């Protein structure tokens, strides 16, 4: 099981216009792979992408239910339910799901984010019906007892201890999000607050399952060496029998406009201090694909941190040596509000003030002087090379389709986004840096490193 909560640090779409009039999805021979969309009578959406380069298939089920749909007191339940989905149905015993997938030579897993929960299997094409039958079964017939839940909630709490409470970078990010957002549910960690996990009951997970795990809240994405009509027939056979339900009302929870700098300090055992700076910025909205600013912000991330010699790494790591590493994150499509995030680990002997000053100087220089067209073109070529590698993956194709659909867009919008991206100019990248990377929408989080206690010291204090 995987939790997805950090922002992407590179563009998730490719600049296919750089190489030809065809998209980077193009299969050998210059032909575009066919993509087919179907809607079942029970509301389930099916998207099938043909890619016949290898006899494998990726099968994914995406539920539009993530941590942003949780309520106070039950944070983390989306991720907990992800764990419980492997605990059996009336037909499949606890633990058997993974064994049965492995028995047909497949691999499988699941992941939860703020926006969704997704499950996948990757198998040889003749085994697609086998895994489809398993996944469709647990969409409607999950059945776990309280004892199974009590064991698994302990696993989740230990996961939180290891990945968050014993990880200074994760603690800093968690506090940053909780400080930056006032009303948006993005302020809660995907794994949930520990107190909520400690008080969670099996009934909470069952309620979540009954509320959101329904065909009219799901998208099935299948990519690989398949025949679309044969896939549709199987999906109708296995998923078509699922009964749709009325979904809970989703409240808007619009984030209030920030009116000044917010700051938070975290004290935790660590080897060095860390600094995170996050600005409120716009995202792309369905129906407004021509909005320039989100594309410019995506490109700005690459200007600052898109390659080894990008501006922040070159200046702060190599030249000034004020930080050991630095990263930038932004994602222009999501269900909730967005941040433009810069996070750095300080070099030995350097202060947070020095690091912040260097970051601000680099941003001010970009806002004042802009970037060269040649610099932007080099960045696009670098990103393209990384995207081509990703597009070679059957699983990568399914991931991109799924995340695009869950954010409220269509897989058909990807080409339009690509077309729009090619029109972005250096002046537009400069403009978003000048407009949004300002104090009015800034949240600063600082990790104050504490001396790590040895095991002997901890035991002596008990």
From TrEMBL:
Cofactor requirements of the protein: Zn(2+)
InterPro entries: Metalloenz_LuxS/M16, MPP/UQCRC_Complex, Pept_M16_N, Pept_M16_Zn_BS, Peptidase_M16_C
Claim: Endoplasmic reticulum is one of the keywords in the record: no
Pfam families reported in the protein's UniProt record: Peptidase_M16, Peptidase_M16_C
Superkingdom: Bacteria
Peptidase M16 N-terminal domain span: 47-191
Annotated ranges, domain Peptidase M16 C-terminal: 201-380
Gene Ontology BP annotations: proteolysis
Gene3D superfamilies, sorted: Metalloenzyme, LuxS/M16 peptidase-like (3.30.830.10)
Entry keyword set: Hydrolase, Protease, Signal
Entry protein name: Zinc protease
Organism: Polynucleobacter brandtiae
